[in-house]
Amino acid sequence: MTEDVGTQVGDRLVGRVLDGRYRVGSRVAKGGMATVYEALDMRLDRIIALKVMHLGMGDDAEFGRRFVAEARAAAKLSHPNVVAVFDQGTDHDTLFLAMEYVPGRTLRDVIRQQSPLPPARALDLLAPVLSALSAAHDAGIVHRDIKPENVLISNDGTVKVADFGLARAVTTTGNTATQGLLMGTVSYLAPELVTDGRADARSDVYSSGILLYELLTGSKPHTGDTPIQVAYAHVHADVPPPSQLVPGIPPYVDALVQRATARDRDLRPADARVFSRQVHRVRSAIEEGLPDDPELTGDLTVPIQQMRQDNGYDDGYSRGSAYVEHVEQPPRNDTIVVPYEPAQSLLRPAGATRQHQPAEPLTRQPQQQRRGRGFIALIGVLALAIGVGTAAWFYGVHRYTSTPDLLRITAADAKTKAGESGLTTVLANQDYSEDVAKGEVMATNPEPGARIRKEGEVELTVSKGPERYRVPQLKGLDEDAARRALESIKLNVGQVSQAYSETVPTGRVIIFSPKFDSVMKPGESVNLAISKGKKPIAVPNMTGKPVREATRTLKKAGFTVTRTDQTNETIPQGQVISQTPSNGTLFAKDKVTLVVSKGPALRKVPNVRSKKLVDAQKILTEAGFLVKVEKAPFNLGLNLVAGQSPAANQMAKPGTTVTVTVL
């Protein structure tokens, strides 16, 4: 996918936050199915690539299901040459993938700027593509959309393949193979996708072969005015040798391209790993500076030649003309349909027939002439046998050795051991192993005992040890985010329980087990406890209770108690007049307010000094006080009030006893 990204005007997604996590930035590329944006993962504070499916593509439930399934399959591919898939999600009507962001350029840019490339450089660029496809094919995933736009080259030179599984998700929405061809990738589609719509690992090999042809020549092998004409060329015409356009390309490179792009899928390498081995052999021959290697060329071309002899068709190139000129073009209609043809007719150009020429009559030659020719023929046969034997020895036994057993030793030891046989090693891949210790070699290419050129290169796959993952910090995440975090490291969610929490909001993880940073195997489960929020607490009614009892009871229930005091003529001092709230439920640390009685209000003590005792008692009683009478030590019997306590005009509570002293 390519696009001029100079303008983002009118893009509805730029600046939007998807799934509450991904802030969409500038648009990077746009294709027929999706648009890719640079985005910020706000949770992990990193730049990612966000692939957003076009509106309407996600409306079909079956498409959405397939898209999710394929995204999960792609996420399982852990390989240095595969663009990593971090997350998949839906935000309302927006279906998206969060992927590794690879700043740099695409292989299309390299072809446009540098092609035709030298064979060594072309193979070096193809090798990591095949390494990525090998991992996919081992996992049962067929890419279906290998093209220069889907091969990314980072600024440090790392080659990564993108869009694993997406083409498969599209073709399962009900589109026919023909409809798929009209989406811009027809130049790289294998013939079987045109004839029956079925693809396997060999279809990716075909597309990779077309990719190699384009790297070597700077052009595509088949062209046409319409996509369907190109599709017909894939079915009816062999890919020509790249040396027809770029003289000087070794025959074994031609053979490699034509073997990978054989129209009969049974003649291609079985998968990307087999094709990668053939690329490795051809690359070794180039390193040796061989202009030709008859044995290698023969190994690659004999099956194709045999098939052509068995089926009796001519590819058109032996006559020195481009076959596509002879392809019968279908009529142009609004709806284009690719007709299915039997296998034999697909392998033979329209109108092509095998030409059988009658043998010329034999004439008798004189006996002497026959004897002379026989002697010359014998000498020729002997010379040919000697030449063939010498060539076989030189190109077969002399130049090859056996790959040593480098398994279960460290990469450094493997390098030393390979060097003893005149070989070099290269670290091609790393993978997990339950059996092979970390840092030791778990596989080689070629395999131990296989034939390899002297001074050749052995690719090492080194063990990363057992595959283990540390449990991430999940506390505080919502359940969906916790599940995604575990799935991203191949762990499962086990039992999910719910519990009240006074600190963790509803729907978020309170606790999990095993605990944070525990080491686990892929596929093991982590149990989650999800918060139901704060626990509701019933509020007891403490109205009329002594304030100490009320306070103690409410605090024990978990509430915060506040208090206000006020006078009350009927409620005794220290008792609860009212409570807010007085019923219902609250949560821990919520506030309950008590109104506590201070008793009746204070009153002013009347002045009864010099009053007669009878009058003083009446005045004090009517004021709400009690009266106590005491006689003065020098009592004269006058019954006049000489003193009072509390004193006149002091404030006292109703019911207070006022002592009067009489004379």
Automatic annotation (TrEMBL):
* UniProt xrefs under InterPro entries: Kinase-like_dom_sf, PASTA_dom, Prot_kinase_dom, Ser/Thr_kinase_AS
Name of the top EC class for this enzyme: transferase
Catalytic reaction list: L-seryl-[protein] + ATP = O-phospho-L-seryl-[protein] + ADP + H(+); L-threonyl-[protein] + ATP = O-phospho-L-threonyl-[protein] + ADP + H(+)
Transmembrane stretches in the record are: 374-395
Which CDD domains does the entry mention? PASTA_pknB, STKc_PknB_like
Every PASTA domain range: 401-464, 465-532, 533-598, 599-663
Q: Where is the Protein kinase domain?
A: 22-283
Q: Which GO terms describe its molecular function?
A: kinase activity
Keyword annotations for this protein, in alphabetical order, are:
ATP-binding, Kinase, Membrane, Nucleotide-binding, Serine/threonine-protein kinase, Transferase, Transmembrane, Transmembrane helix
> SMART domains per the record?
PASTA, S_TKc
Question: Which intervals of the chain are annotated as region Disordered?
Answer: 349-369
According to its UniProt record, the EC number is: 2.7.11.1
Q: Which domain of life is it from?
A: Bacteria
Official protein name in the record: non-specific serine/threonine protein kinase
